[in-house]
Amino acid sequence: MRIVGLTGGISSGKSTVSSLFKSRGIPIVDADIVARNVVRKGTGGWKKIKTEFGDAILLESGEIDRARLGQIVFSDPEKRQLLNRLLAPHISSGILWEVIKLWLKGCKVIILDIPLLFETKMNLWTHPVIVVWVDPETQIQRLMARDGISEEQARNRIEAQMPLDLKREKADLVIDNSGSLEETKVKFEQVLTRVNSPLSLKECAFCRDGVLSILLSVVVGIIVIKKNVS
């Protein structure tokens, strides 16, 4: 099984690239969706956030006010780190469960779409790692337009994350999303060729069918040995 890591920065266009993979039939495990699920009202993640941040970050429905919580953690590095520590175990287990479900379905290639791929060390479990990069000024302008915020607020949010240039250095594959969507699609096609290349022997061995084949071989081997011994 090939587990491909996909990451980027805020407003870098990672979601666009993720959608392109999905349109080609490649399963996506979206860490943002997992994160939303683990903080739903009544969950363990929800209880931890409520305890640490108080009722002020709850909506009338009792659900987490994600916008309010985001304002708090983006402006306070310590609280951001606290939130990451609180949710990391829940998000990691949620991602693992999604991967297991896809493995059971027999999927041979999947994409892990994780904003904090390097920060959480989950890049160690993925190969290749794809980084969606964009130049700094374009990133700021896109974030301001998307969220309707000031340049200062945009810079604060971007600076709260690992620099995109550093992520690019750590990547196996880079998609430069600084230009038009059509230009990004051309670069995506080049990366897709690598992602869909034949699996290595190791990757095949860890696929569902590969594991079943190994188990079958072991069982047959045991039977043969027992017959010869008899």
From TrEMBL:
GO aspect biological process, one term: coenzyme A biosynthetic process
Which residues are the signal sequence here?
none
Enzyme kind, highest EC tier: transferase
What is its pathway? Cofactor biosynthesis; coenzyme A biosynthesis; CoA from (R)-pantothenate: step 5/5
Entry keyword annotation includes Chaperone:
no
Keywords on record = ATP-binding, Nucleotide-binding
One GO cellular component term of this record is: cytoplasm
Domain of life of the organism in this record? Eukaryota
Q: Which molecular-function annotation in GO is an example for this chain?
A: dephospho-CoA kinase activity
Q: Does the keyword Nucleotide-binding apply?
A: yes
**Which Enzyme Commission numbers does its entry carry?**
2.7.1.24
Which PANTHER family does the entry mention? Answer: BIFUNCTIONAL COENZYME A SYNTHASE-RELATED, DEPHOSPHO-COA KINASE-RELATED
Say which family it is in: Belongs to the CoaE family.
Name under which the protein is recorded: Dephospho-CoA kinase
